[in-house]
Amino acid sequence: MKRSTNHLWAGVGAAALALSMISCGSTAEGEDPSLLHGRIWFEKLPEKKTQHVHALVVASRPKRGAVSKSSAYDIHLEIFEYAREESTVKLKFPQTDKKAEFSYTIKKCDADPFDLCLDLDKNPWGGPKRYYAKQSGGSVDETAEIAAALESAAGED
Known about the structure:
There is one protein chain. This protein has a single domain, classed as Lipocalin. By secondary structure, it is an alpha+beta fold. The chain contains three helices and eight strands; from the N terminus they run ααββββββββα. Helices cover about 20% and strands about 35% of the residues.
C-alpha cells in the first residue's frame, strides 16, 4: 500500500480502532435504525489530504461510540457513551462530562461509494447533520474500496 494511502487513512483508522476498542431512532424511509451500528459514517470524501472530514462510529455493545474530525495528517477523536429511546440518542462524553442528544433517520441514498445516508436533527459535537456509509458494513474489501475512493478524491497536496 502506498504511503499516501496510509496517511489518508490515519483518521479513518483511528475511528475504526475506536470502534473495535469500545466493542437508535425510527426512520421515515423504513431503514432499520440498527444500521447506525458497526460501520464508519463519513461526512464526505476529502478533496485533499489536509482537508478535515468528520466521521462517526457507534458500537451496539457496549453502548459506546466515537466522533472524529481528521485529515490524513491530523486526528481529533472523542469517545462517547449513549442510550437510545425510540428515535432519540442521549450522549455522554466522559472526557468533558458533556451531555447532549439528537434524533436521526437512516435512508438509502446514492452517494458513490456510499449507499446509506444518516440525517441528524442536530449535531451536538459540532459536525455536519448528514453522514454517509455502506449498507453492508465494513468488510475488508469494502474498507479497501472506500480507501481507494478517498485516495482518489484527495489527490496529491
